[in-house]
């Protein structure tokens, strides 16, 4: 049995560099799922101020400039939320919601947190050529809170040694 070798079978793309959400929300880069079957969106944030919770938003588009951008709904998000450090949180909690392209955890701002959204390429409107995904953090928070996000693409459709880029 072959084990996953991320640099050969997948790709890691920075959605957005570490940012203080107090200065602005965060618009992630658009990634192309044409060469991958799945993407795992990972958002992490440091301790902020209670009640000043970031809102995660997913969009889909037909190209890397966001043409025709529209909602990309999901129903499950996994979280690790720690009082002051994630090192004390061993497993993810699965949170479910009605289909929506946004998510907010009402207690995440006062804690370190990690959120994971798993998407299959088939969740996009592929019949209308939607193949690009973007994570946004909608809030311009009132208080300082550092955050960062990455996309982990896996299930390469074509194996060729080193995985192909998801940035076009």
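Q: What amino acid sequence fits the structure above?
A:
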């Amino acid at each position: 049995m072959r084990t996953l070798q991320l640099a050969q079978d997948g790709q890691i793309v920075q959605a957005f560099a570490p940012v203080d959400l107090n200065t602005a929300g965060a618009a992630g880069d658009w990634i192309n799922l044409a060469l991958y079957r799945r993407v795992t969106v990972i958002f992490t944030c440091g301790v902020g101020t209670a009640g000043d919770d970031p809102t995660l938003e997913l969009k889909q588009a037909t190209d890397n400039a966001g043409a025709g951008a529209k909602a990309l709904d999901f129903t499950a998000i996994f979280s690790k939320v720690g009082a002051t450090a994630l090192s004390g949180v061993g497993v993810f909690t699965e949170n479910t919601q009605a289909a929506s392209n946004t998510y907010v955890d009402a207690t995440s701002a006062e804690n370190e947190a990690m959120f994971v959204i798993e998407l299959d390429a088939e969740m996009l409107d592929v019949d209308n050529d939607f193949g690009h995904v973007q994570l946004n953090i909608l809030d311009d928070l009132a208080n300082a809170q550092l955050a960062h996000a990455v996309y982990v693409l896996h299930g390469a459709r074509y194996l060729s040694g080193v995985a192909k880029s998801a940035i076009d």
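Q: And what stands out in the fold?
A: The chain has a mean pLDDT of 89.
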